[in-house]
């Protein structure tokens, strides 16, 4: 009886379990027997376009802050365009030749929207002073128009260079600040997850006025070094905001470009201390 069981097990171990494929060929499950090699067909090649390159549109790119942003973006390898009422830049720096300069008025609905073609991110430096009604139009209405048009065009990210509160100055420059805050509200509505608002105070650095370069850092740098460590003073009612530290235009430009191109940059409002912190992180 035992010999029959052993014989049966040996017979089963020699048994080839045969299966059929879709072509009717028989394949063996034994590792040392191959009925016929598999034929692997080459996968069909699909022409997938490369990911679009980052294209940045700087509103007011020929101004003090805007020109530094354009240069910073070019240094990062971005395609850069600028839109302003004057169009071309008066700057004589070599990098300016690599910027596409558009002329248009944000208060005119159709004169500038083609500048948004192919744009992936926008940074607005639009702002100005004058009467209250004029300041509201330039700081508020013009930026609101840009934000809405960018959202309609499918722009991914939008960064707005706003301004820090200065207490009593907010009342004296009512149209300026009301316009800024209206634009901020619109941005957070249209770009809740990809809108960034930078609120610097006094921005210092080398400012070009024609062929003359004004070294604003002579005043701004020492004040920034002192006041950046005096944050508690900025909490004093009424006069506290006057202790808001100045910040270098290079720091603002670096953080603005990063906010416009980094998908994980947190949306929302970044005050001057946040701008300093992000800038220092990037410099390490």
TrEMBL record:
This is NAD(P)-binding domain-containing protein. Coiled coil: none annotated. It comes from Hibiscus sabdariffa (roselle). It comes from the Eukaryota. Residues 60-204 form the NAD(P)-binding domain. PANTHER family: MIOREX COMPLEX COMPONENT 2 (PTHR12126:SF16), NADH-UBIQUINONE OXIDOREDUCTASE 39 KDA SUBUNIT-RELATED (PTHR12126).
């Amino acid at each position: 009886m035992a010999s029959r069981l052993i014989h049966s097990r040996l017979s089963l171990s020699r048994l080839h379990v045969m299966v059929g494929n879709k072509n009717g060929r028989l394949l063996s499950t034994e590792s040392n027997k191959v009925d016929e090699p598999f034929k692997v067909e080459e996968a069909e090649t699909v022409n997938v376009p490369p990911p679009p390159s980052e294209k940045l549109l700087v509103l007011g790119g020929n101004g003090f802050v805007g020109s530094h942003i354009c240069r910073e973006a070019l240094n990062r390898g971005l395609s850069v365009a600028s839109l302003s009422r004057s169009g071309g830049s008066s700057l004589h720096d070599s990098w300016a030749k690599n910027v596409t300069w558009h002329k248009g008025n944000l208060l005119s609905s159709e004169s500038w929207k083609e500048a948004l073609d192919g744009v992936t991110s926008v940074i607005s430096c639009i702002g100005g002073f004058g009467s209250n009604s004029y300041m509201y139009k330039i700081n508020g209405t013009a930026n609101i128009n840009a934000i809405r048009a960018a959202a309609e065009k499918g722009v991914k990210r939008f960064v707005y260079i706003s301004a820090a509160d200065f207490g009593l100055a907010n009342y004296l420059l009512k149209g300026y600040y009301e316009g800024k805050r209206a634009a901020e509200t619109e941005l957070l509505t249209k770009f809740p997850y990809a809108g960034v608002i930078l609120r610097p105070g006094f921005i210092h650095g080398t400012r070009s006025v024609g062929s003359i370069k004004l070294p604003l850092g002579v005043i701004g740098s020492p004040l920034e070094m002192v006041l950046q460590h005096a944050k508690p003073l900025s909490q004093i009612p009424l006069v506290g905001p006057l202790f808001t530290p100045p910040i270098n235009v290079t720091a603002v430009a670096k953080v603005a470009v990063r906010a416009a191109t980094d998908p994980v940059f947190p949306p929302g409002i970044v005050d001057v201390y946040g701008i300093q912190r992000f800038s220092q992180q990037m410099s390490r």
